[in-house]
Amino acid sequence: MTNLIKYNTIFAETFEITEDILPGYKYQDTPSWDSVGHMSMIAALEETFDIMLDTEDIIDFSSWEKGKEILKKYDVEVA
User: Is residue 52 domain-resident?
Assistant: First the structure.
């Protein structure tokens, strides 16, 4: 399974959305991406990719696209 598939699956399952809306998807686009949903997604990403995100990166993680950029800092290529 590719990193992109893992990444998309985390978003789809955490926020109960379909993958077709992921491009352009951002914080609070749906009620499920609230502060609790955000931390659930972060926990899933950290577990899946075996990383520990810095607090600043957790706060900056504001969209599907931004998340891909942030993960690059942790040597996780999502393409």
Answer: yes
